[in-house]
Amino acid sequence: MKKGILLLFSFYVTAAYPQWTPLQSGLTFGGYTFYYDSTTDLLYVGGIFNYADSIRVNGIATWDGSKWDSLSSGITYGGPVYKITKFQGSVFVSGWFNFTPPNLFNWLALWNGNSWDTLGMSVNSFIRTFKEFGNELYLGGTFTKIGQLDANLIAKFDGNNFSSYPFPCYDFTVDAIEFYQGLMYVGGNFYDTLTGINDLERWDGISFQPFGGNGLASGTDAVTSMIIYNNELYIAGGFSVATGSPADNIMRWDGSQFHDVGGGLNGGVRQMRVINNEIYVCGDFTMAGSMPVNYVAKWNGTSWSKVFNSSFNNVVLDIIGVGTDLYVTGGFTMIDTIPFNYIAKYANYTGVSEIASVFSVNVSPNPANDKIFVDSKSKIIDAYKIFDALGREMKFNTVKSSKAEINISQLQSGIYFLLLSNEDGRIVKKFIKE
Prior knowledge:
By secondary structure, the protein is mainly beta.
């Protein structure tokens, strides 16, 4: 895949322009979810498709920037792959599938890079969300058992064992888990039999409690996604009123009260992701505040804006940034007047990849383990920043020297970008942390 820092340096313009690009012949049916693994530079796609291009993939596939690949025989399933994440070296996949081999009906499978595993236990219903926090993996869904463990809609996995929470809700679903100000927040479509609260609660270490009011309205209202942005908890889904205040499918919580998000959206939200310090939202909406949009919009903390000037003929279910490119998947088969089969790449979104020729610099070793060494010859470097492959800032420091030794031991293995700046301008160098 083309590498770079998404949306960071738009004032550096190259000859490349944004454009829609097919991923070979695409998918045979809808894509539901993305996961990008920077350690292997693979984009995972999950959904309800049988083929990616001409390759039999059965619900999950990887894209390496030029071609598709399967994960062994994939997953034989009766429904979609919902979520994909990576935890302690294995790729966790949730969905509705009949995992083969050994042909055990299950809603959870692990891919170790060569083969599938089930951890030796079966989950009895859907897993709809993953959230890693504190070196543990949290799961939410409709399940009530994992193996022999009673686990009502919420569980966590420490790498060896599952444990559960006393969540007093039944026959419903948890679709989102997020941690904010030291507390675990859960959202979905549920009714708490103890508190009488719908769809939105938090765990205070002892019990689940309401916050900010009485949750969402009963019935079809639901929370589908939560994310932290600008030190606030953003909550989105399909709802019009929350806790007595207008919400219109998205709202933000500052720890003491809810706030409007630019007038909200006129349809439900399927996914939120922070890409280069803005929230990208996709779903069933066509308006973001007063801004006409087409299933995708972005929020900069103050106002809504379009992501694309293009029109999709059906819903976008997920969006992700990888380097300078944006990927979208969902139920669409056309973008503007061009056929696309359920997935597409918007290439060179910023027209920027690695920035070079501003001044000369050497970065070594590459790949590196604990440290990288920077030498700009006689040029003084004022400061540096390190970004991961999704454009998130990981580290910043001042230098005021032509040479620098940078400790990268705390970074996870993967692809990173080093931004160096001085009076002459900026330069970006890619490096790999082993």
